Amino acid sequence: MRALGLTLLPLLSGDGLTEEMQLPSGLVAERAEILLEEQPGGEVWLILRVIAPGLGARAQSAAETAAQTAADTDALCASWGVEAAGNAAVPPDQIVVQMMSAWVERGQPAPDITQVFAGYRFENGTCIWEDF
After folding, report:
1. What is the pTM of this model?
2. Which residue among 13, 15, 84, 114 is buried most deeply as judged by most CB within 10 Å?
3. Which DSSP state fits 79?
4. C-alpha closest to that of 27 among 95, 75, 89, 88
């Protein structure tokens, strides 16, 4: 079995991490962390991690919640994701939006924290949704 290397490069530090955004669903998201990860196949992924405390408290039906969450991750990718990709030293192949109801250390299990992941191909300065 071959060990896979993973490169994490923080893109933001200091006060840039406290920016907030009102999402289409009404949730407020706080930008928590933006990383570049080199994948085993050579692709570079930009990981946009945000905290949205109300994420786990939605009371709508599953269809409503899915539609709202998709609108939220689309908005996050189109704003903070595209901005970060444009400022990255290495242009990412993909942007992954990770919404969390509370802080979770990257790669650690957190069964009590609601998390949503959405992947986007980054082409011509835009986010194109892709299924993982």
Report:
1. 0.83
2. 84
3. I
4. 75
List Cα–Cα distances, 52 to 60, 90, 121, in angstroms: 17, 28, 23
Those residues whose C-beta lies under 8 Å from the C-beta of residue 67, and which sit 6 or more positions away, are none
Give residue 9's region: left, alpha or beta (phi > 0; psi -120 to 50).
Answer: beta
- 113 CB-near residues (< 8 Å, 6+ apart): 56, 100, 101, 102, 104
Write down all domains in the chain, each with its CATH number in brackets. 7-130 (3.10.310)
Name residues whose C-beta falls within 8 Å of residue 2's C-beta, 6 or more positions apart in sequence.
none
Residue 103, C-beta contacts closer than 8 angstroms, at least 6 positions apart: 32, 51
